[in-house]
Fold this protein.
Amino acid sequence: MAAIRILTLARRVIEQLRADRRTIALILGVPLIVLSVAGVLVRLEASGATVAFVLEDTGAPLPIASGTVNLGERLISSLQGVAEHLTVEQMMHDEAHARLEDGEVDAIITLPVDFSAQAIRTRKVTIPVVYEGSNPMIARTLDTMLTRGAVQMLAGLSVVNTGGAPEITLDATYRYGSAEFDQLDYLAPVFIGLFVFMFVFILTSVAFLRERVAGTLERLQATAIRQHEIILGYMLGFALFALIQSLVVLLFTIYGLKVHTMGSLLSVFAVEVLLALLAVNLGIFLSTFARNEFQVVQFIPLVVALPVFLSGALWPIEEMPGWLQPFAWMVPLTYANHALRDVMIKGLNLIEIGPYLLALAGFATVFVLLSALVLRRQVGT
Amino acid sequence: MNSYAVEVSNLHKHFGKVQALRGLSVQIERGITYGLLGPNGAGKTTLIRSIVGLLPPEAGAVRVLGSLMPDKRVMGRIGYMTQDVALYEDLTVRQNVAFFAAMAGVRIDVQRINEVLALVELSDRLNSRVRELSGGLQRRCSLACALVHRPDLVVLDEPTVGVDPQLRVQFWDHFRRLNAEGVTLVVSSHVMDEAARCDRLGFIRDGRLLAEGTDRELLARSGCATLEDAFLHFAEQVAIPG
C-alpha cells in the first residue's frame, strides 16, 4: 500500500510540473544556453597578450671575440618562441602608446640605443616595461614570460656569459594599477555591481509577486495612487536598500579586503544607483510572468548567471567569438562592469565613463517603460 | 450633483472568451446599502472592479459620485474591501491602516486611525503583525483599511464570507452607521439571507441585472416567500425569452 501512495504522490508531482510548461522549458532550456555560453568562453584561448616593442637598440661589439650582437633583436625572437599566445609586434613609440590606451597592447618594451652596450659593459640586463595593468593577471603572466625570454636571449652567448650570466631585471611601470594589483582588484568591481543587481532584482520581483498574489496590488491600484507613483515608490524604497548594501560591500571590499581603488567612491555609487534602479524595474517587469516564488527563482539563471558569463566579468568581451559579442553588449551588467573597472582600476571620472552611464540609464528607461506597461495591463485583466 | 452614488449603464466586459458583463445597468442612490446578489461567476466581482475603477469599461459607462470612471480623484473617495484579505502581512495593523489612508491621499492622522480601529474593535491589536491575527481579525483590519479615509462610497466584495455570526452582526451595525452619515455602501454576496439587511437589492446572473428593488418589492413581484425562490423566479423569466 505504501508503494501505491508513493507512486501516486510522485505522479501528482509529475502532473503538476507537466501542467507548468514554462517551468519545463526553463529547466531544460536555460541550462543548455548557459552551458553553451560558458563552454565557448572556457575554451577560449588563454588570454592572448600583445607586447609592443620599440626597438632603438643598435647593438654592440662583442667583447673578446669579434663581431657584434644586438640583444634587442635577440630578445624579440626569443620572446616569439616563449608562448603561443604571446604576440610580439615591433612599432614606433607613438603608435605603441596609442594602442596601449586603446587596450590593444598589453605592454610596451622600449629598448634604448645603448641597450646592448649597457648590458655588456655593466653585466646587467635592465628591461624597461610599461604594463597596461588593468588586468593584473595579464601583467603577472607577461612578467614571467619576459623574464623567460630574457634568459633565452642570453643563452648561447658564451662570450657574454663568461663569469656568470648577467643579472636580469624588469623595470616595470604601470599605466593603470600597479604591481600590487592582483586578481581580486580585477574582480572586485564586478562583484560590487553584481551583488546590487542580483539582490535588488530578487527582492523586487519577489516583493512585487507577493503584492500581486496577496491582492494588495489590486487594492493599491483601486486607491488614488497612479501607476507611475507605484513605480517611483518601489524604486525609491529599494534604491535605499541597494545603496546601503553597496556601501557595506564597497567599504568591506576596500578596507576589509584591501582592494585598490583609484577613482572616487561617488562615481562607484553613481553606477550602483543606476544599476539598482534598472534592477528594480526589471524585477517588476519579470515578476508579472511568474505565478509564484518558484518561478521567480527560475529566472535567476537567465537574469543573473548568463549575464555574469556574458558581461566580461571573467572573460574579456574582445576575446569572445564574434557572434557572441553583440549578445554581450545587450547585457546591462556589461556596461556596469566596464564602468566600475574604469573607475576603480583606471581611476576614470564620471565624465569619462559617461557613455557607460548613458547606456545604463537607457536600459533603466526601457525597463521603467516595460514595468509601467505590465502594471497597466494587470489592471485590465 | 445628481442623486446617484453609482450609475452603471450598458456595461460590457469580457475576459478571453468569457463574457463577464453583458450590458449591465444599475443605479445606486446615495446613502443606502445596496446588495448585489448572485451565484459565483455571475459577474459581481467584475461589476465591483468596474465600479471602483480597476477595469475600464469596454462598452457602456460607469459613473461614480458624478464622475466617469476610472478617475483617480474619485478613487481616493472610495473605500474598497476585496474578497480576499489583501493586507501586508509583515506589517502591523496600524501600519496597514496608515498605509491605505495615505494611498487615498489623506494626511495620516493618528486620531482617525485609532478611531477606525476602535470601530472595528482592533484597538488592542494595534501593533500586532497581520500575519499573527486570526482570519476574523484580519477581516476587521481589512475593513478598517477601507474606511480609514472617510470614503463617500464603500464597496465591499463578499465582506462576510468566512466571518463568524457575531462579527457579521457587528459589520452590519457599522454599515448602518455609515449610511446614517450619508455614506453609500455596495455589498456583494451570494448568501441570500444577508440580503434582507440591504436597502435595495440587485439580482445578477450571467452578467446581467435580472431584477432590482427592495426585498419586499422583489418578493411581492415574484410572489415568492423567500429571496432565494424570488431569484430563481426571475432567472427563469429571463431564461425563457433568451
